[in-house]
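[step 3/7] inverse_fold.run input=structure_tokens len=236
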């Protein structure tokens, strides 16, 4: 059987790391994409212990030239799964959010998944059961104050997911968004110091759901969905 390959952005920590490890445990070769090469190498070492050799591609997802290099590096290869997991956050009132901050949040959380997906479409088309998974956020279903830029980006990602799913349906390439509630990741710890961890979703749970999506038979898909702790109480 030909080894399956997954490209995972934001793979140096948090959800990206957990998804890479879950896929590797299932015999899937991950290509780890992220900014910090040292973090990617640390995850690759963890994966090596599972008997899988992970690839590494360090880049800035907001840099078009570096994204083009990723496409060139994978030219002619088959990519069976793309997980757009990299993201950044901003907690600020709309009146206090600068244009530069807004542009950055949109570039990382919305523009990058668009360009990475478009860049790797030729590779995904080589697979007989291709998946694109976009990691969203529960803010697409809730109205939460002080995260207007982040919400705008994730709601945009939801729209992109649906439109791209419709566009690629004739080619049987599934496109699904998983929208977690607060998760037990470094990004959440930085945003909410001292948060009650019983209200958080573990990265491993989200990774298991991502694996369930990519394990669906060819031609079968699912709708976008949220995933959160039953102890999570949405803010007023």
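[step 3/7] decode complete -> sequence:
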């Amino acid at each position: 059987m030909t080894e399956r390959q997954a490209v995972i952005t934001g793979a140096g920590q948090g959800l990206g790391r957990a998804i890479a490890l879950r896929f590797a445990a299932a015999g899937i070769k991950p290509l780890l994409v992220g900014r910090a090469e040292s973090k990617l190498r640390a995850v690759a070492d963890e994966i090596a212990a599972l008997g899988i050799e992970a690839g590494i591609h360090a880049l800035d997802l907001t840099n078009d030239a570096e994204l083009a290099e990723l496409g060139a590096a994978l030219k002619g290869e088959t990519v069976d799964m793309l997980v757009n997991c990299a993201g950044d956050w901003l907690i600020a009132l709309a009146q206090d959010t600068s244009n530069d901050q807004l542009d950055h949040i949109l570039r990382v959380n919305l523009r990058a998944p668009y360009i990475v997906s478009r860049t790797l479409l030729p590779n995904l088309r080589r697979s007989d059961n291709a998946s694109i998974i976009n990691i969203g956020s529960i803010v697409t279903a809730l109205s939460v104050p002080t995260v207007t830029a982040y919400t705008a980006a994730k709601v945009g990602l939801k729209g992109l997911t649906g439109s791209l799913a419709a566009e690629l349906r004739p080619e049987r390439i599934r496109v699904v968004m998983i929208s977690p509630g607060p998760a037990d990741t470094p990004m959440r710890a930085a945003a909410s110091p001292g948060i009650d961890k019983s209200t958080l979703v573990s990265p491993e749970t989200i990774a298991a759901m991502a694996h369930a999506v990519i394990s669906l038979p060819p031609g079968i898909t699912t709708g976008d969905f949220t995933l959160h702790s039953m102890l999570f109480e949405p803010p007023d």
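[step 4/7] annotate
The chain is about 40% helix and 15% strand.
The mean pLDDT is 93.
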